[in-house]
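Lab manual, section 2.4: Encoding a predicted structure.

Procedure: take the sequence of the chain (460 residues), apply the prediction step described in section 2.3, and record the output as structure tokens. A sample record is shown.
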Amino acid sequence: MDQRMVDFIRVMRAAGVRISLAESMDAMHGVEVVGVSDREVFAAALRTTLVKEARDQSTFDYFFPLYFGSGQPPMQNIPNELTDDQQAMLQEALESLMGDLQALRDLMQQLLEGRPFSRQQLEQAAEQTGLSQADQMNQRPWFERRMQRQMNTQQLQAMIDALLDQLREMGMSQDALDQMRDMMQQNGQGLTDQVSNFTGASMAEQMAEREPDPKPDLMDVPFVRLSDEEVQAIRDEIRRLAARLRSRASLRQKRAREGSLDTRRIMRANMRYDGVPIELRYRTKHVKPALVLICDVSTSMRYCAEFLLTLIYELQDQVARTDSFIFISDIVDISMVFAENEPQTAVEKVLNENRPGYYNTDLGGSLATFRDEFMGRVTSRTTVIILGDGRNNYNNPRVDIAADLKRRSRRVIWFNPEPEYQWGTGDSDMHLYAGAATAVYKVSNLRELGAAVDKILVDR
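Recorded output:
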């Protein structure tokens, strides 16, 4: 049992559940106390000591029966429940139906006698189906189908129906037929479950023998590949990332205040001392940027926009002013939402109220609305950040407005999750917008997004 528990813990780790050595020892001690006679109490002891997060509960429930199930389905010896005449009738029907198909005749005999598959039968089928090559549990349904086909269990229902029809023609009573049908279907389900459990247990044992694959750093997982759990983890990471960026920005400001000597200002300030440099003057290069954010919140850009907005507003003490806009088919001013709410609450509210729908992304039309209604927010001190993939659904891209933004502002920075080789493909107008931008940063994951925002804070 100890080795079985060790293997179970190993497969849980391989499936991504964090289990320390101390927690493994706790599980062993817990089982020593409660024992294994009561399966529910035994499972509760393991669950309590090994599962720390709600998201790992389903993983535990999936693997526990594979390691600690009975392995033998409940089955009945059907001929023992029949009269001598019924047994003779059954044997005659079997010989009539099965003919020379030895494999099917043996399977039907095994079904009727309620004999589970032997370990040798299952291992032979596993070798023939290549089960030893399985290395991911998401392959289990495919290997189960191959195993069921190899063991002929997929034909059981047809065999049962044919046998019952033959017995009916031979004069067996309906009550006896109904009783036989129930027992054979129960036995058939038992054989099918045995194959399924063997497949899952074999794959789990193979997983346990491997070292768990190292999880990629969430900072490097592309936004388009994030699972729901990873999205939530990144939301928690945003505050820590903002704290790191804030510390670096503050350090830069300190260095700017203590920066290099400004010779011209020193000479001017010390003219009254006949040029003797008594009062020193320093160059100050760092200024807090004033930002205008224009974010695409269509389906493909939604997570990226959420993380950018959250990050920028977590860093408001490092920014002189921020005006924020989102668009799908048209521009929407969301600045007041952030003025009235905490960043994460504001982002959730904005995304809930501006969901993708039947309408298509229209950046060109959104830029036209921005020019008509909000262009006054852009001054020579403003850094404009446009977040989008440049895909415009074949609408007019209005590159002229993007170029006008560049002329009016301090700079126009474009954040795009797509690599440059995808620009201009399909409905992408990014190759046109790039010429109207001061710089384009690729922001396909949180690390790239954080690095791009950090560069924005260096407003020189």
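Check your result against the sample. The mean pLDDT is 82.
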